[in-house]
Amino acid sequence: MSQSRERFSIIYFNKKEYSFSIKGILLFLIAGPLCSLLFYLFLEMDINDWLKEFIAKQTSFFLNLIGNVNAQAIYTPLESHPWKIYISSMNMNFFISTWCTAAHIFSIFIGIIIFIPHPQSHETRKGIIWRKIKVITFLLVIIYTGNLFRIIILLGSALAGIDWEFIHQFLNLMSGILAAIIFIITVYKTLPEFFISIYYLSSIINQKIKKKK
């Protein structure tokens, strides 16, 4: 009986009771990263070049709309990165890689959210799948839109003569920080199980360490 109580200790958050199975938490810690990796590798496959095509065409459209720089989305199947943005006015090519589509961020967030442990209580578990769907949809829209504007600003800055390496690193850093902040706020408000389950596991580990001592 004592073993059962330890496994299903209760944590209170916003006047609700939360408890998790160890199996669910371990699945989150192991299957989450694995799912992220597999999803990213899937997005890298040639059948998903449509995502690079979207980015190339939409970026070209907005660059021409803002600055009329005669940007074109061009498909070159023999290149390692088949989709590129060619700006004829400056004779410049910008190749679109899988990384440029923010696929790595999509993959990390999806792997985490899908495997967030479900609480044992029926009351707190209710609606969690729908909440996961809403969070994934919201984050995908925000990340895709934000990444598109990141590329537009990056290419616009390069055309304005700003050092490519500097602006590229700076925008990557800022967009990564912003994505992390949006993720934390969204998950905290909609899927607090992410943070609670981590705290739950740390509590169990601390209990076991104290018992051994």
Comma- or semicolon-separated keywords:
two-stranded antiparallel ribbon, disordered N terminus, three-stranded antiparallel sheet, 213 residues, 67% helix, mainly alpha
In short:
The protein is mainly alpha-helical and 213 residues long.
Give an account of the 3D structure.
The chain has a domain at 20-50 and 99-114 and 126-193. It is 67% helix and 9% strand. It has helices spanning 2-7, 22-43, 49-67, 103-114, 122-125, 128-159, 164-190, 193-212, and strands at residues 11-13, 16-18, 71-75, 83-87, 92-95. The strands form two sheets. Strands 3-4-5 form a three-stranded antiparallel sheet, covered by helices on one side. Mean pLDDT is 88; it is low at 1-8.
Largest sheet: 3 strands, antiparallel
Mean pLDDT: 88
Strands ordered across the widest β-sheet:
3-4-5
How large a portion of the residues is in β-strands, by DSSP E?
A: 5-15%
Task: Kindly name the structural category.
Answer: mainly alpha
Query: Total helix count?
Result: 8
Low-confidence stretches: 1-8
Give, in order, the helices and strands: HEEHHEEEHHHHH
Q: Radius of gyration from the CA trace?
A: 22 Å
Number of strands: 5
Tell me roughly what share of residues is in helical segments: 55-70%
Shape: elongated
- End-to-end CA span: 22 Å
Summarize the helices and strands and which ones pair or pack:
Layout: H1 2-7, E1 11-13, E2 16-18, H2 22-43, H3 49-67, E3 71-75, E4 83-87, E5 92-95, H4 103-114, H5 122-125, H6 128-159, H7 164-190, H8 193-212
Antiparallel strand pairs: 1-2, 3-4, 4-5
Helix pairs in contact: 2-4, 3-6, 4-6, 6-7
